[in-house]
């Protein structure tokens, strides 16, 4: 039999996604490509800004409810704690310290798209909380989820902090939750953070900081195309712009072309035309309330069994289990 390989003119998913997004109308780029080494560093800086309330809200919840959260994780045969999108582990360390102090039998399996971030986390835990049994795994959420079902010898606690789900449109968020649900057995649980709807101004301030860090984070997409795809974007010719729709709860980030211009992406053989004030949509950061979270859970085959929040309901961490058990 003759084997005909499928050919694509792109070498990487990044190349293909950039070509697709920038030849679309309206133009868009996928936010996952913000996170190279520089993007990771900028995101760390964002998490340390006072305007980006999400980190401190969630940290406050984890500190206030450490014992009850840790108790809900534990089981007779111990458990595997699988964290998707682990980042620098600043918030997780609060739980890990408690779990180790209580002598709970668990493995910590952080998953992140960035190997660099995982290496740093492993190094930090070795000195800060040496009792943690850690096994890192590099990869995207969707790829890792396929392997999740292999962990089935004891209880799985799947953890996603930082309202990372908010970067997915509802349809994709349901797919993501469905995949998690399919990998869960009766005893397993999902512990997930959701940023809540709140004063629109507070949300806008979090994504439009006066220090210019979020702007640099958003523009890292342009910087990456310049260095990896031999493009000639002038970052000063684009404006970072944030909107928040209080009805849908969607915060959206854009890069807006300040003038009519032509940008070359040599590696893709593309010449992209921008009208003055034309946009590139770069990210959504969805905000939630209990109704939306319950709807997402139901659509995915899950149910909310417990929730933890701060005194102002700024942010919530929910526990989900499979609906059919
Ligand atoms: C990672 N993610 C949940 C962040 C968010 O809030 O959407 C990314 C971010 N974008 C701008 N600031 C932070």
Automatic annotation (TrEMBL):
Residue ranges annotated for the Histidine-specific methyltransferase SAM-dependent domain, each copy included: 14-321
Superkingdom of the organism of origin: Bacteria
Pfam families: Methyltransf_33 (PF10017)
Keywords on record: Methyltransferase, Transferase
InterPro entries: EgtD_Methyltrsf_superfamily, MeTrfase_dom, MeTrfase_EgtD-like, SAM-dependent_MTases_sf
Gene Ontology terms: biological process: methylation
GO molecular function list: methyltransferase activity
Protein name: L-histidine N(Alpha)-methyltransferase
Organism encoding this protein: Zunongwangia pacifica
